[in-house]
Specification:
Blueprint: E1 5-10, H1 16-22, E2 29-35, H2 39-59, H3 64-74, E3 78-79, H4 83-88, E4 94-97, H5 104-113, E5 117-120, H6 128-141, E6 145-147, H7 155-165, E7 172-180, H8 200-217, E8 220-228, E9 233-235, E10 245-247, E11 253-260, E12 265-271, E13 282-286, E14 289-293, E15 303-307, E16 310-314, H9 327-338, H10 346-365, E17 368-370
Parallel strand pairs: 1-2, 1-4, 2-3, 4-5, 5-6, 7-12
Antiparallel strand pairs: 7-13, 8-11, 8-17, 9-10, 11-12, 13-14, 14-15, 15-16
């Protein structure tokens, strides 16, 4: 692929802010257009992206001439009137889909039909059928589909993965994964979609944890589940609608046991019903030791190894150092150029979605169920760049 991958962003909501500041810093990417149902929000996003590009150029003092030339060649960031208009632009090679989950299965196929690669927010879609349709359309068109999270490509999860791969804990036997909060309505001004079909703690936060677990231990072959919905209504906790009540339509406390292909068992808890807990995010236990893994919703964090009766921090040894949201898209751009699979892939996202939906099915049926899909364990990320101070010794 010659030149940078030109990106059109669809959906300029909260999650876009991190990407708008990250994309100008990443080689191989160039944001060319943005659209949103709210045009004023799209215009603000375009200005933010342009300012971030200017700031990135100014701080690249050691490569000032090259940086200035790159910024000058990009021009401004266009504001498209609609997603269709953005996808039809000649200066868009790939669509960055940051719409709400309910729109993922609409935007991705439209982008593929327009001949554009797609990188989207998690989850890949709301149903297995929608996910299969997206992958099928991409295969027929010869296009790439990537999907968040890309946090697992940072030094936190990747350093832990290298420790597992290097045998520092022996043979992996078990893992625990805990995500607990009292609910997103405390901070989100419009939280209803978290509590409607396609939402809930598992589909919202599960992709971070399950993607990390697949990197660490491989795909999941069987699940056992249980779930509950302690409260039928909740209240908006912030913003102009504070105090407004809304219905809860999904289970908000989900527990499961996951059997990985290699034989390790993971105990999983995803909850919007826990006010305070002292549970670890992820731990992996092996025949020779244990590993403490940082929050998979972050790129960095301390990795600690317990072995031989002592606990020791592990220095960053893998992952995209200094990474932030957008590195999964940059990895896809590099993979396109190199002709290799990208790591934050639709295949991984489809498997993660299937694991989550099968777990919810098992919870409803009060049983254990096989997972119908699988995926390759993504290639590990070698240490790229200078690790940040927070990425190892904590």
């Amino acid at each position: 692929m010659g030149g940078p991958l030109r990106i059109g962003l669809v959906g300029a909501g909260k999650i876009s802010r991190a990407c708008l500041h990250t994309l100008p810093r990443l080689p191989g990417l160039r944001l060319t257009a943005v659209t949103d149902l709210n045009r004023a929000r799209a215009e603000a996003a375009a200005k933010t992206a342009e300012a971030a590009a200017d700031a990135a150029a100014e701080t690249a003092e050691t490569a000032a001439k090259a940086s200035e030339a790159a910024v000058k060649s990009t021009g401004g960031v266009a504001v498209a009137a609609s997603a269709d208009e953005l996808m039809a632009r000649e200066d868009v090679d790939a669509v960055l889909n940051l719409t709400i989950p309910a729109a993922h299965a609409e935007v991705a196929p439209a982008a593929l039909a327009a001949g554009r690669h797609v990188y989207g927010e998690k989850p890949l879609s709301g149903t297995r059928e929608e996910a299969d349709a997206i992958l099928g359309a991409a295969e027929r068109a010869g296009l790439r589909v990537g999907c968040a999270p890309d946090t697992v490509l940072g030094p936190g999860t990747q350093t832990a993965r290298r420790a597992v791969d290097d045998g520092l804990i022996g043979t992996p036997v078990a893992a625990t994964a805990f995500m607990t909060t009292a609910g997103h309505e405390a901070w989100h001004p419009d939280p209803e979609f978290y509590y409607r079909p396609g939402g809930g703690p598992l589909l919202d936060m599960g992709p971070y944890y399950l993607s990390a677990l697949v990197h660490l231990l491989g795909p999941v072959v069987r699940v056992t589940g249980a779930a509950s919905r302690p409260r039928g209504r909740r209240s908006v906790g912030s913003g102009p609608r504070a105090g407004e009540r809304f219905a809860v339509e999904v289970d908000t406390h989900v527990m499961g046991v996951l059997e990985h292909r290699g034989g390790a068992l993971t105990t999983l808890l995803m909850s919007f019903d826990v006010h305070a807990a002292r549970l670890p995010r992820i731990e992996v236990h092996g025949s020779e030791g244990s590993l403490s893994v940082p929050d998979p919703n972050t790129f960095d964090g301390p990795v600690e190894l317990w072995r031989g009766g002592a606990r020791e921090p592990l220095a960053p040894s893998a992952g995209y150092a200094g990474s932030a949201r957008g590195h999964g898209l940059a990895d896809m751009a590099r993979a396109l150029g190199a002709g290799r699979p990208h790591r934050a892939s639709a295949e991984l996202a489809r498997h993660v979605l299937d694991v989550m939906l099968t777990l919810l099915d098992a919870a409803r049926e009060r049983t254990s169920l096989p997972v119908g899909t699988t995926c390759s364990r993504p290639e590990p990320v070698p240490l790229v760049g200078e690790p940040s101070a927070s990425a190892g010794h904590g």
